[in-house]
Amino acid sequence: MTQSFSRRDMLKSASGLLAATTLGGLLSNRAVAADATPGSVQDHYRHNPAFSPIDRTLQQAVDNKTVAGVVAMGATDKGLIYEGAFGKADIDAGTPMSMDNVFWMLSMTKAITATACMQLIEQGKMQLDQPASQILPELKAPMVLEGYDAAGKPKLRPAKRPITVRHLLTHTSGYTYPVWSGEIFQYEKVTGMPDIAYSMNGALTAPLEFDPGERWQYGISMDWVGKLVEAASDQSLEVYFRENIFAPLGMSNSGFLIGSAQKKRVATMYNRQPDGALKSAPFEMNQRPEFFSGGGGLFSTPRDYMALLQMLVRGGRSHGTRILKPETVASMFKNQIGDLNVVEMKSAQPAYSNSFDEFPGMTHKWGLSFDINTQAGPHGRSAGSGSWAGLLNCYYWIDPVKHVTGAMFTQLLPFYDERVVKLWGQVEEGLYGGLHRT
User: Is the whole-model pTM more than 0.85?
Assistant: First the structure.
């Protein structure tokens, strides 16, 4: 039976994964971020026929309904090497996809939150191995969920050790997401704890699923890092990002709260149907979030987001502006979880995400805050590259060895769609192939 999921359904059910704190800002008259063309500090693209195979690949993906619309970009430390937009931002309206469409970045927000946190660490306002409760007292006494009693009531105990800043940045804190954790999903149902997608502070009362430092499991940790940034800087995450990252990088169309002109450019979300077809999913979200989600609340454009990736591939600098020190950036691409390993994220809610393992059969680690492949990837990236993704099948990687970065943007559920993942691999191959031909 065909089942359709609207964004209202997503809000109700896919909490931890979505971290949708700010779509309400998108729809709200309180939106504050300026609508502007990309700032002059961003690179300008000149078409290079060496990368034309990517054009054909993306157009074919639209033609065979792998995606409704897609944007892909690539760059080196020298500048942009590729950009292309294909298909429709809204099929029903006939709106073409463009480089200036606004995308809900979801977990691709985490790279920006990590950048902000590392800036504050550079400034001595926090330390990696500092107990996070010294900055946020609400983290002083975390509880671990040990299961449920015969009546279905949660069984909790105190955590064995404090949560550190490093634990939060590396997803070793014990916090998880209900989309990949049946235990936490059950906890929400039996306690009435608000879904984190509502952007209510009550969602941050979630228990840990394991003691800090005992394993890696993806979760809401970066929402707590966003709170750390706010506490250490005495600014909201919206203002901190804008003043310390977005404005210096010319990211004029990025933010948690974005303007009415940008709202008109938001790419429509689609659900993959059982027969492979795509169905649009109108949405309606909380318009007055209680907190900005450092784990998943950002809206941006491909050109804006590429400015961030280029800064990282350039070792923290962009067009004369220093965002991070080179040694800080280098540390972000190093193993920060010791003997622990990143493991497959097994879906507990297949409507929103397939099970996810970027590198099946390969040992991979976590940096600050990226998935690190320890061997060369199958499509061109070097060992030691960092990567991650957003729920609506957006993807990026940063190769600090070859100084290459790439990203692809769609708005499609469920996450880690097999056809889109194949397309993403072809884009990566096309970027490295074009560089080789050049």
Answer: yes
